[in-house]
């Protein structure tokens, strides 16, 4: 084999190895970018006497969350999505009508979002026991969401306390 042939073969092998490394690096970078904008939605209950109490939604991730769907259930019976008409059905019959923040399918929840979804401004354990019971023991809320890249199918769920 001539020196020129060996040199040409080495050049082709180096070019192919360089291409493989570039493709691998691009895939790793794309995966890193997806993880670096991952939203993390969390649902919390809080009952501080005298303060705002209820269900709070927090996006503690590094990117915005796109709401794919939501499901609100009471006593195991599906009411519907987390929208005004469904929340109004939950508030019926309570001693006080809690404030509500709703959202629609496709809505984007910002990175630093922290908002009460269903709440009482000045919670009193005695006067608002039925609201606390509804939220703690009867209500289930499931929010399905994804990042701006889409397709991850993340879920945040608030289950009844047993």
List the defining traits of the structure above.
single chain, 162 residues, alpha+beta, Immunoglobulin-like, 5-stranded antiparallel beta sheet, 4-stranded antiparallel beta sheet, 9 strands, 32% helix, rod-shaped
Shape: rod-shaped
Structural class of the helices, strands and pairings?
alpha+beta
- Tell me the count of domains: 2
Kindly state the number of beta strands: 9
Describe the structure.
This protein has 162 residues and is of the alpha+beta class. The protein has 2 domains: 1-36; 38-158, Immunoglobulin-like (Sandwich), CATH 2.60.40. The chain is built from 3 helices and 9 strands, in the order H-E-E-E-E-H-E-E-E-H-E-E. The protein has helices at residues 3-36, 84-91, 129-138, and strands spanning 41-46, 53-59, 65-74, 77-80, 99-100, 108-109, 114-120, 139-146, 154-158. Strands 3, 4, 6, 8 and 9 form a 5-stranded antiparallel sheet that branches. Strand 3 and strand 4 (77-80) form a beta hairpin.
């Amino acid at each position: 084999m001539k020196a020129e042939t060996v040199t040409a073969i080495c050049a082709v092998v180096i070019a192919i190895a360089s291409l493989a490394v570039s493709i691998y690096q691009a895939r790793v970078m794309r995966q890193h970018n997806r993880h670096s904008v991952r939203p993390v939605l969390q649902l919390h209950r809080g009952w501080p006497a005298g303060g705002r109490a209820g269900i709070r939604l927090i996006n503690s991730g590094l990117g915005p969350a796109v709401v794919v769907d939501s499901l609100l259930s009471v006593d195991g019976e599906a009411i519907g999505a987390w929208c005004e008409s469904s929340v109004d059905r939950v508030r019926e019959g309570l001693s006080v009508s809690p404030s509500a923040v709703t959202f629609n399918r496709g809505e984007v929840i910002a990175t630093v979002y922290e908002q009460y979804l269903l709440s009482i401004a000045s919670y009193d354990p005695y006067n608002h026991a039925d609201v606390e019971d509804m939220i703690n023991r009867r209500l289930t809320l499931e929010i399905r969401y994804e990042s701006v890249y889409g397709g991850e199918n993340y879920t945040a769920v608030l289950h009844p306390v047993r």
